[in-house]
Amino acid sequence: MEALDKQAIDILTDNDRGGYTIPTAGLYPYQWNWDSAFAALGFSTFDLPRAWQEIETLLTAQWDNGMVPHIVFHQPDEGYFPGPEVWGGKGPIASSGISQPPLVATFARKIFHRDEALGQEKLKAIYPALVKWHRWYMECRAESGVVASTHPWESGRDNAPDWDEASDAIDISNVGEYQRRDTSHVDASMRPTKLDYDRYLSLLYLGRDCGWDEKVIEQTSPFRVADPSLHFTLLRGHRDLAEIGKLLGEDVSEIDGWISTLEEGCKQIWNSEISAFDSVNLRNGKFAGSLSNASFLCWYAGIESPEMVGHLERILGNGHYIVPSYDPAGEKYDAMRYWRGPVWAIMNALIGWGLEEQGHVTLARAVRQQTAGLISNYGFAEYFNPDNGTPAGGGHFTWTAAVWLSWSL
Ligand code: DGY
């Protein structure tokens, strides 16, 4: 184990670009939002000031409207597409124009406990930015109590089957020629398809061309999908933000209101046909019919569900590594293709923490042991094949290393 601890520390150190950490060299050469939350957690196990700095650096990219972007382009890099000039971000630092699952409040609270005197000072400094970010989510993404993703990249689950039906409405006739970079770093069979990329770009252009005006995007974008990954991470984030606020002596009634709204909204992402939390296309009210690893974030959000326990036990009983990003019994299951099957250590960490907190001790242990087994047998990969553990995507991966170091936090 000590050798693996050292490898994990080396990965974080290698991927440190001075104040922020890249997910992995080549494939992802900038600062990504939820990757950085994990990086901070990983750093907190051996370098606490550096952990706080990771979060502080991310928040320096916050836009005036409160949005904290999903990519921050600190330094130019030819190896990534679409780069800063394509996005045309409106923030103080070159960035993308969408956000990502808000893990920072939750992880900052975990990091706080490692040194409460330092933690209190750091929390006090970042609290206003976190409230502003969460308020932006409630104002610009929480429609009638359910949190919507405006782009598959915003949910963090780029090519999940959740988006297939909703994406059919995206017009790709304006996209033109472009050169992908991701498939020069990783085999194309593990990445989104050309059609997926055309759609990602079409949505990007729509946002950029209206100057990232949230009202215009809300009114005109064909893509608006209520999403368990954003809904559950924001609900959980609100809970932690409220605790941070109380600790700092702030009035948290606004945050308490957000929590009630999102608790109530969980009903809207419950698909009784598949007895699971699911994504909903808000443009036509259709469920995606997708049991994904985001469906299992319910416990992380403090929401209990015996049916979700049943699904997890079934998948475990069928001999798959848990938790696959899409149900192996589903017709779109693709064991190596990114968010259409593979197991992600980061999602397992969130799911495992939730299970532990809700008292599902046996399942929590299974998730934790399998995650540790995958990493120790197959390395610090971006994701893993649920059928046989094969490592996939990028290697030397920051968030997988961070999960290894920080699970016990
Ligand atoms: C990518 O480039 O694949 C990223 O996931 C976008 O955020």
Explain this structure.
With 409 residues, the protein is mainly alpha-helical. It has a single domain, classed as Glycosyltransferase (Alpha/alpha barrel), CATH 1.50.10. Helices cover 48% and strands 6% of the residues. Helix 1 (2-15) packs across helix 17 (398-406). The longest helix has 25 residues, at 116-140. The protein is globular. The two termini are 17 Å apart. The chain binds (2R)-2,3-dihydroxypropanoic acid. Residues 70, 153, 158, 182 line the site of (2R)-2,3-dihydroxypropanoic acid.
Indicate the low-confidence ranges by residue numbers.
none
Query: How many angstroms separate the termini?
Result: 17 Å
CATH level-two architecture: Alpha/alpha barrel
Instruction: Enumerate the distinct ligands.
Output: (2R)-2,3-dihydroxypropanoic acid
What is the N-to-C order of secondary-structure elements (H for helix, E for strand)? HEHHEHHHEEHHHHHEHHEEEEHHHEEH
Overall, the morphology is globular
Short description:
The chain is mainly alpha-helical and 409 residues long. 48% of the residues lie in helices and 6% in strands. The mean pLDDT is 97.
Topology record:
Elements lengths: L1 H14 L15 E2 H11 L4 H12 L11 E2 L11 H4 L16 H9 L3 H25 L1 E2 L2 E4 L2 H4 L8 H4 L14 H4 L8 H16 L4 H7 L4 E2 L1 H20 L5 H13 L4 E2 L4 E2 L2 E2 L4 E2 L18 H12 L27 H13 L3 H18 L4 E2 L6 E2 L5 H9 L3
Antiparallel strand pairs: 1-2, 3-4, 4-5, 5-8, 6-7, 8-9, 10-11
Bound molecules: (2R)-2,3-dihydroxypropanoic acid.
(2R)-2,3-dihydroxypropanoic acid binds next to loops.
